């Protein structure tokens, strides 16, 4: 199923890119805008061009190329199809969720502290189980899919640790030990927030709350989540 989803997404992106290219060939105004953008892009890379001027040309190139792509009918249709797919994926995952799992533990003496075992994944599922590595602040991006982070298997350092998650569509579930102080800041276009057995509908809102023991707890975790379409559930163990 995972390979089938990946193949479908790759084929969809290829078809959108080919469609945009063909549409530009038959619409001279879009082709002119794209060509101007490419010219500015190449001139920004020339030797001897001051950095400030190069950045300006690069910005102008990005604007022209972006406008030429956004004005194509193919891009608009692709955007609608992608939105429908995201909503369908979100609904189907609520029925039978498959979770991306991240577990953290204390560092072993023979481990290289620079090793990392958390990878960003835009589509599909990933499971990282019983991996030993040094605790560090978590900063991940996910596209379409569910995420579960279990902080119960790690000894957090004294002070405040940070968990930052950005997601397009899917459910985020956080398992947090009861003795940790929690500062939660959740932003979503549409979804639900469930914290301490209370559920709240989130519609283009940003919600910030603190646990009762936040001020006195020696170990704290600051959780910052941004979701376009999805739910957040915080479970205190």
Give a written overview of the molecule.
The chain is 36% helix and 35% strand. The two termini are 33 Å apart. The chain has helices at 2-26, 28-44, 51-70, 73-95; strands at residues 99-103, 127-128, 138-144, 146-150, 159-176, 181-195, 198-210, 219-236. The protein is α/β, with parallel strands linked by helices and 237 residues long. Helix 1 (2-26) crosses helix 2 (28-44), helix 1 (2-26) runs antiparallel to helix 4 and helix 2 (28-44) runs antiparallel to helix 3 (51-70). A hairpin with a 2-residue loop joins strand 6 (181-195) and strand 7. It has two domains: 1-95, no CATH class; 121-236, no CATH class. The model is unreliable at 96-100, 104-117 and 122-133 (pLDDT under 50). Strands 1, 2, 3, 4, 5, 6, 7 and 8 form an eight-stranded mixed sheet that branches. The longest helix has 25 residues, at 2-26. It holds the Pfam family LiaF-like_C. One of its GO terms (cellular component) is membrane.
